[in-house]
Amino acid sequence: MIELILSSGMLTPFLSTVLLIAIAFSMIRILREYQRGVIFFLGRFQAVKGPGLIIVIPFVQQIVKVDLRTVVMDVPSQDVISRDNVSVRVNAVIYFRVLDPQKSIINVEDYFQATSQLAQTTLRSVLGQHDLDEMLSNREMLNDDIQSVLDARTDGWGIKVSNVEIKHVDLNETMIRAIAKQAEAERVRRAKVIHAAGEMEASEKLVEAANQLAKEPNAILLRYLQTLTEIAGEKSSTILFPMPTELISSLFKANKDRSE
After folding, report:
1. Stated pTM of the model
2. Distance CA 229, CA 93 (A)
């Protein structure tokens, strides 16, 4: 019976219908808002289409989908020798997205891998031009330098590098101890400078006070009486009475007059 049906050609219209439906469904492509389709006609670039519903002719046209969303890429740790010959390990994260789907497919084989490798080499080359202190204290400037270099080099691939962030700068134990000693020495230096500045300011005030007391003799007497009051308030069995220099000078002068 089956051989009779096959020989009579009764399934030919059915198979034709199924084949046409399959071809029709294979022509339909639906691209999301963040997707674009790079269309090739017999191997040659034709157009960039999407988002939404697009028609692709099988065996004649080919489509390559491109994601336009921002990609977060973690750059593996890189061994970097700074300008002052310090070996460190640095890793970073970069944010980039495709601006031109045509360039990202035609001009480079794998834009994701190419951007990753370029980020690693750029990280080493840019950081190698700076000192260790700049890596630790001025990361914002280094981030901008790396971002500008990457953005310029990936422009031909239709890639836009929007941001670069250095995550960690790892030092060996010897360098960590050296930096700690340097920081401690810096704190000691600042303390000495502040103490010396205080001594200088205090000496200037003492000179001003001495000059002011020299202009007003009665002020010396008031200061003498204030000192006696402070001494009397202390709980001590021995009390020393300071003698004003003017009084001692007058006594010496009186004794000299008598002897003459």
Report:
1. 0.65
2. 72
